[in-house]
Amino acid sequence: MTATQSPLKPKAYKSSVKPVWCPGCGHFGVLSAVTKALAHLALAREEVALVSGIGCSSRLPAYTELYGFHGVHGRALAVASGLKAARPDLTVLVAGGDGDGFSIGGNHFLHACRRNMDIAYIVMDNEVYGMTKGQASPTTAPDWTHSKLTPHGTGIPSFNPAAIALASGATFIARGFSGDPGGLTRLLVEAIQHPGFAFLQVLSPCTTFRPEQKEWKKMVHPFDEDATGNPVEAAQRIVADDGMSTGLLYRTRIPVWQPANRVSMEVSELEGGFQV
Asked: What is the C-alpha separation between 141 and 127, in angstroms, rounded?
C-alpha cells in the first residue's frame, strides 16, 4: 500500500459472494476476524493469499477479495508451502477445518509445523464433518453418539491439535473462539505477524449438526497464564487444559525456513517437461 492510499476498511477485504454457511455458524465470526485483522495490519489485498482445502470452513477464499486458492481435501498446507516458497513476499494464510486439517491432511500438518515456513494456519474446529452431513471428525469426543455412522460413538480418543502442533515443532500455538470477535482478531494479528509457522485453532460451533455447541460461549475462558516459550511448560498446560481455554499458549523463535536457489521458469517451459 502506497503512502497516498488510505487504509482499507474490513469490508474492503470481503468479496461480493454471499456465504452459504448455516445461520449461526461460527465461521461467520472467523471471516469477520480475518478481514478486521488484515485491516488492522493495513495489508494491501494483492499482498495476501488465502489457501484452503475442502469443507465448510474452506469456502473462506471465495468470501474474500484476496488472492485465493480453493484446493483439494487435506492439501491446503502443501499448496501454501509451495506458494510461500515461490513468493516469499506474500502474506500466506491457510484456512481449513478439523476434518480437512487433522484427518486426510494430518501428515501435511505435522510437516508444516516442523518446516516452520512463515505461514498462518487457521483451523475452524467444530468437531464434526459438517459439509458431508455430520460424521465424527478427529476431534470428536469418543462418546458422541449423534452420527448415523457411529451411533455408539467412535470409542477413539480425540485428536489434540495443540499437543500435536507442539510435538511437531510449531513455533506459535493459540486457540480462539469465533464468538469472541475482538479476542480472535487479536490472535490473528499476532499469528500473521509471527515469523514462522503460526497455528491458530478456532472453536467454531456447528449449529446444525452440533447444536449443543451453542453452549460453548458459556464454557470458553482465557488461559490462566501468559504464553510460554518453554515447550515443557506448554506441554504441561496442554495436558491439564479442558480444551476450552483461549488465548496464546506458546510462542518461540527459531529460524524461518525458506528454500534457497529458487528456480524461475515460464509456464511453457514447465509444460515441456510433461510432454511425451
From this structure: 8
For 17, residues 6+ apart whose C-beta sits below 8 A from its C-beta are 62, 63
Q: Is 129 helix (H, G, I), strand (E, B) or coil?
A: strand
**Residue 8 has which C-alpha cell?**
482499507
Report all structural domains of the chain as residue ranges with CATH numbers, in order of start.
25-272 (3.40.50.970)
pLDDT of residue 3: 46
Q: Residues 105-120: pLDDT tens digits?
A: 999 999 999 999 999 9
Where does residue 215 rank: exposed (0-12), middle (13-18), buried (19+ CB within 10 A)?
Answer: exposed
Q: Does residue 249 sit in helix, strand or coil?
A: strand
Query: Three-state DSSP class for 126?
Result: coil
Taking only the tens place, the pLDDT of each residue in 185-226 is 999 999 999 999 999 999 999 999 999 999 999 999 999 999
Say if residues 125 and 220 touch (Cβ distance below 8 Å): no
Whose cell is 488510505? That residue is 6
Phi first, then psi: what are they for 269, rounded to 5°?
Answer: -65, -40
